[in-house]
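RETRY 2/3 - previous attempt timed out on the joint model. Re-submitting the same 636-residue input unchanged.
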Amino acid sequence: MSRRAEPQVADLVARARGGEPRAVARLISLVEDASPWLRDVMAALAPHTGHAQVVGITGSPGVGKSTTTNALVRELRAAGKRVGVLAVDPSSPFSGGALLGDRVRMADHALDPDVFIRSMASRGHLGGLAWTTPQALRVLDAAGFDVVVIETVGVGQSEVEIAALADTTLVLLAPGMGDGIQAAKAGILEIGDVYVVNKADRDGASAVSRDLRGMLALADRREGAWQPPIVKTVAQDGTGLDEVAEAIGRHHAWLAETGELRRRRARRAREEIEAIALEELRRRWGSVGSVERLDALADAVADGRRDPYAAADELLDG
Amino acid sequence: MSRRAEPQVADLVARARGGEPRAVARLISLVEDASPWLRDVMAALAPHTGHAQVVGITGSPGVGKSTTTNALVRELRAAGKRVGVLAVDPSSPFSGGALLGDRVRMADHALDPDVFIRSMASRGHLGGLAWTTPQALRVLDAAGFDVVVIETVGVGQSEVEIAALADTTLVLLAPGMGDGIQAAKAGILEIGDVYVVNKADRDGASAVSRDLRGMLALADRREGAWQPPIVKTVAQDGTGLDEVAEAIGRHHAWLAETGELRRRRARRAREEIEAIALEELRRRWGSVGSVERLDALADAVADGRRDPYAAADELLDG
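RETRY 2/3 succeeded.
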């Protein structure tokens, strides 16, 4: 760990906490680039974390996630909250960033110093959100944003990961996007704290809402469990977003009252520690010396001279 | 490792190698359930692996992956090959299996003892295909299938993972599914060994093919590198599938001649060893004693008393 790094990191953190967007952006870049100063950054941020309310927004392509995020940010700003947005794009494992990205998304809030929006490509061996997003969230949390919205397309693991990361998960649906079987298949019934049926002015919105209500009623919930509300919206013109914000607030109060907020955050921290530890191991395995050993084991497995479990044991213990 | 398990595992492996589908299915279930006998299973399979040709098929929802897989299986069967199919459904992290699943897919080949089809939900902390699919592949390989087709929807990490797993990766496109930017964004230009433009009887198929050819021409390829062909198909009626099978065969011959097959398989083994080692660590961390330690670290991180990197170091070294 470089001594020289410290003054700059301390300065960046102080400026980020003072509300300077460029310092926030720089800290997130240090996270994304897995900078050698990352550990210093995280150590400096830690005492200031744990205050932001984390809202996840997920849904299939085309349901209106970006529009809804935009409208929600407007609603939260009207309530005087500082809002950070992380738009995670899991379809972009290679590019290191969304193609359209921040400039399109920023348009509505570009001049508002109390809104910070960042597009992130999800990547890394651990897949999906696991690696950089929780760290970027930590930056925004320490920088004093009251609410951090994490938006991701609901495909593959990403929607599960967003639910693990968020205090409150919004699942977006829209008419014409798929039938009940698809909804159940996508596992959305397990992860939503608030369901939003967007494009509610279109044909079929009531049917989506009704089917969803039926499926949620069948879901097995413990006594005293949160009953996820279903809110109809037209994000394009802001209709219903006040109700969404109200539902998020109600869920947050419920989390705090029941101790569930504390449990969710401890679980999030636990997963974060595990992910970092696993990544650190990969790094160690990739170091000179270790690489040769791993290559020799891989050759043995490829030749059928050893099975991969025996090889893994050797790697760990041997 | 249980001594008692051995006779049953040896028997199962022998029966699977003898072509008994129920024994193959049971071995894959042992993999999926992370059975305590898994290590015995893998040790028993290892000497028989390394012969199957692994073909990955990926593409966006709606391009006709299942239909193409079905038609390809028919083509391969006509050439006398025994074929295993793993249909991976990354949209189903919770269910432990696709809702529609095997019965729909099986229809065409239900009575053919030389075709084995299995739907798998992708899941596990390591995300996507990483955990169970390579092991299931190992089962089919050892059971003597000449070709194993792994089909997955191309979203998030799954298409990258399938490319890592397969000897030959087929990327499916179809007219009306998205423009050039989307194709580039999805990273498909990096992973395809054979490109298939399905639904070639529809408007726009030639444009898709032409755009793709243009983008592939721009891609930076080393001298002597494989030039991915573009094949037009109508999977519904089998048109063009002979060309697809021919392209797969040509690519396989190229892989073998250049030594690239050996390199790909060693890389696959390496990733498999790493994934198993990481999962084993997670298991150790989840054991009695370790859980309490990890929970204490998670509490400290959630409270801001420690940063997650320091906590990860303690978990690994402390």
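The mean pLDDT of chain B is 83. Closing ticket.
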